[in-house]
Amino acid sequence: METTQSAGGITGNVLFYSTPEPLNRELHGKLALVHQDKPYAFAAAGTAVPLTVTEFGPAGLSYPIIFAGEERTPLAVMGLNQGENLFIHADGSTEVGVYIPAYVRRYPFVLANDDAQGRMIVCIDRASSLLSEAGETPLFDAKGEPTEYTQNCIKFCDDFEVERRRTDSFVQLLKDNDLFELKTATFTPAGADGQPGEPQVVAEYYGVSEEKLNALPIEKLKELQTSGALAQIYAHLVSLVGWDRLIAITMFRQAQAPAANLN
Known about the structure:
Layout: E1 10-11, E2 20-22, H1 25-28, E3 32-33, E4 48-50, H2 56-59, E5 65-68, E6 73-77, H3 102-105, E7 109-114, E8 119-125, E9 131-132, E10 137-138, H4 148-176, E11 180-187, E12 200-208, H5 210-214, H6 218-227, H7 229-239, H8 242-262
Antiparallel strand pairs: 1-7, 2-8, 3-9, 3-10, 4-6, 5-6, 7-8, 11-12
């Protein structure tokens, strides 16, 4: 994927990117990466982050993986309340051992549609605090060519786009086999007497129906297994246990908040 010389016409809104601009040696020739020990502050309000299908295994160890909207976009759920991320904090630090989605790791680079040229081009979020003329790792060298760092970032974006398309194919396969159903995540609080209270719905989302999956013909299950799709389906199903983790963390932090306010 090459950098572009003109601004072009970028379409679409992308989560976390407030000011995307086509990477341009004339406009961005002096920019450099700012090294930060805690670089993920931009994602601290990301309640749900897009995932590619090949991330289901590692991501499922940290978060529930759901499917959202008409497109059934796979998402890693990282918080229960809007604008809340339980695993990435406001200072840019993360909880120890959690998986950071590739969607987050590629920032501040991204691919975007260029209507004028009818192709995808490399962009950066010009408003990112990770980019500055006072940064340590330049985006371009003295000849105006992308540095090794920039080339690696571009390759990461290209690879991400390949995985995104593979994910689209995976989702379409689930649609073709009518495997989606509307699911709910619930929480049962304890009453004043210590007995279980009324269950409360925490979230509604789309997921794979185990009943529909088990009802598929043997030959269809074999196809899913051979293609690798079956393993990813099970990674999604196992990840849903993570709703309990999200609820537990949320309750713990809510309990700690009043105590902190008193100090």
